[in-house]
Amino acid sequence: MRASFHPLLLAPSALACTKEEYLASFGDAYTMLPEPLPTLESSGILVATVSYEPACSGAVSEWHVQPVGKDAELQVFQISRSESPCSSPSMFPSSLTEELRLPMPAASGDKYLAFPPDQAFELVKLPNTSPEELEEEAALPTANVSAVREKVLGGIKVGVDRVAAVLSAWKS
């Protein structure tokens, strides 16, 4: 899956808010990890890996997927985090990494997931998983994996040999 960027959708000015207001819409602070990229399962479950520092040891975070703005063609969503109140914050918070599995709101068209500001990406395109698209993918003929591997690896070897020949000729 490739990461996609759509500057008009996520620039805080396009949302008529400041960067701080946009950041606040994600709730309590967290980092969405770029590896592995967030995905959308065919069952409509969004899978994303995040890291965060809870204020208190044992604090519980609630996670929700919510739409960002309205657009007929593009559906942009964000994950928001809310942490349970903490009476005595930890002096040395520890970082937690968690794989989230959250139900995605129903939406048609292209779906994008927004990252909080100043992270690896601003936006990633989620795969379309309508029942019709899944049936089409299932109906596609499968390729002979070993034949494809041979062709790709053979092409790489030819490319490497060409680069070596060019470098050799250039050095002499």
Can you describe what's shown?
With 172 residues, the protein is α+β, with helices and mostly antiparallel strands. The chain has two domains: 7-129, no CATH class; 141-172. The chain has four helices and eight strands.
What Rg, in angstroms, do the CA atoms define? 22 Å
The biggest sheet, with number of strands, parallel, antiparallel or mixed sense and barrel status, is:
4 strands, antiparallel
How many alpha or pi helices? 4
Q: State which percent range the strand residues make up.
A: 25-35%
Cα(first) to Cα(last) distance is 42 Å
Helix content: 25-40%
Mean pLDDT, rounded to whole units? 74
Coarse shape: globular
Helix-strand pattern: HHEEEEEEEEHH
